[in-house]
Design brief:
The protein has 192 residues and is mainly beta. The protein is built from one helix and 15 strands; from the N terminus they run βββββββββαββββββ. Strands 8-7-6-5-4-3-2-1-15-14-13-12-11-10-9 form a 15-stranded mixed beta sheet, with helices on one face.
Amino acid sequence: EVLTYRTTGPEGEGRYEVTLLRTPAGLEQNITILTNGFVKIVCGQMTTDLVPEESNGQIYIQGAVAMKTACTYRGDQLRVTTTMQPGTQVFDRTIPYSGRVFDFSQLPLVARVLPLQLGKDYSFQCLNPQNNTLVPFTLRVLALETLAGVECLKVEQVDFEGRTLCWIEKAGSHRILRFLQPDTGRTTELIR
């Protein structure tokens, strides 16, 4: 599945592409975000039971690498290595965890695969790649709304990047039709 989004905000317009692949080993997700002078590429693998295995992310600003992050999961340990440019500062940390934990590559997928129910809250841990710590990640199903003729669940997601409102198809493959980040003024909408 390949989904393409148009994103608009105070910094301008851009594209957001999500590729989701089912493999015999599980799920692979690739995300590419392109805006004026900024590129973010995120790749992640997890089992079909949503157990993360590894993730990688790169951020480019004005064509130069600004940050690279790699995550590997082994048992109850998450190893995170972040390299900041210029100067190649490396932050390497192993974080113990219990229960479900997600990182930057899995967050957009979680709301699509959970059996969401109106009025229900979901709580997990997620990695904040800005400081390599675990922080709360919550989903709350707020309402049932129609968007462009499609019945959607309106979901509030709160993670390390702040609050995001998502409109997720109630039926079908549960595609996210719209993201709205009130704190940044950014809106991202599915175009194909």
